[in-house]
């Protein structure tokens, strides 16, 4: 199944949105008057991380926005470090640009880190919060090195096998979930000249001192007011289940769901189960 057949039957647009001067690639679908749901990918990722989720959410009546975050995918790549406040401010600018004073946020990995930070800093902008194997609570040198080294190797070497290896790192069952098409999409993104040039800015959160100053604090997590669903996986290569459980415990009223036999992309690897879980959660917490 390709990206196109996954989206077949759903009207969508792939466009660029001016988010306070940052041209942002955005895949939008669902009714124009539906409650907005914004999907945020992980480090070195791109909006295609959510192609298995968009149709289900659009068919349920939500206005879906899967975006490439600043410095990622085909979004602009300004020449400065991308720390969490940079991502947060870009997300706010995107919400302003689409006319969404309040939105549901779904963030995977880095995207969850960014979404949680916005929920802490501007709770009035977040209707509900889904954190899928999010980062942002630990600075594990081994994990940081794995992300930094595997991404750098794939970007600086024009060998598509290394891009495949980078994606396979994320999945419990790579044969089922890393398609040739997904590899080709990421390989093309990784080898844009501006992506290569901006790689140090994108990977700065894998440097210990920079990561430490950006970590989500207990105080910040305690400020989150949005209904929150934390999704974790038993085979998440970047953090064990207790990390997810501790995060959920730190956010008032948060729920925790654990997927078995799943890696770092639960929304992709367990799409059918995740979509049902997400839609039930969203329907419970409609934006007033």
From TrEMBL:
**GO MF, one example:** hydrolase activity
Q: Which InterPro entries match?
A: AB_hydrolase_1, AB_hydrolase_fold, AB_hydrolase_sf
Keyword set, alphabetical order: Hydrolase
Cellular component annotations (GO), alphabetically ordered? membrane
What residue range is the signal peptide? Answer: none
The record's annotation in Pfam families points to: Abhydrolase_1 (PF00561)
Identify the SUPFAM superfamilies for this entry: alpha/beta-Hydrolases (SSF53474)
Q: Residues in domain AB hydrolase-1?
A: 36-270
User: What name is this protein filed under?
Assistant: 2-hydroxy-6-ketonona-2,4-dienedioic acid hydrolase
Origin species? Dactylosporangium siamense
């Amino acid at each position: 199944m390709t990206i196109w057949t996954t989206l077949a039957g759903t009207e969508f647009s792939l466009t660029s949105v001016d988010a306070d001067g940052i041209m942002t690639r955005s895949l939008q679908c669902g009714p124009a008057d539906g409650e907005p749901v914004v999907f945020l990918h992980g480090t070195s990722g791109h909006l295609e991380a959510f192609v298995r989720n968009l149709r289900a959410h659009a068919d349920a009546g939500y206005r879906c926005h899967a975006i490439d975050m600043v410095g990622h995918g085909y979004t602009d790549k300004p020449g400065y470090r991308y720390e969490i406040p940079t991502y947060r401010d870009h997300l706010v600018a995107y919400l302003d640009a689409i006319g969404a004073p309040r939105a549901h946020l779904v963030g995977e990995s880095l995207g969850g880190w960014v979404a949680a930070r916005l929920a802490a800093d501007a709770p009035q902008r977040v209707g509900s919060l889904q954190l899928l194997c999010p980062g942002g609570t630990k600075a594990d040198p081994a994990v940081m090195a794995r992300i930094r080294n595997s991404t750098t190797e794939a970007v600086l070497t024009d060998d598509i096998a290394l891009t495949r290896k980078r994606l396979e790192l994320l999945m419990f069952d790579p044969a089922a979930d890393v398609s040739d098409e997904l590899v080709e999409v990421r390989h093309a993104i990784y080898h844009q000249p501006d992506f290569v040039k901006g790689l140090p800015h994108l990977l700065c959160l894998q440097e210990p001192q920079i990561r430490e100053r950006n970590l989500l604090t207990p105080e910040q997590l305690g400020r989150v007011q949005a209904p929150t669903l934390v999704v974790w996986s038993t085979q998440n290569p970047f953090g064990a289940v207790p990390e997810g459980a501790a995060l959920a415990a730190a956010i008032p009223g948060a729920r925790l769901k654990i997927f078995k036999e799943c890696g770092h992309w639960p929304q992709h690897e367990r799409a059918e189960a995740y979509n049902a879980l997400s839609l039930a959660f969203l329907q419970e917490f409609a934006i007033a």
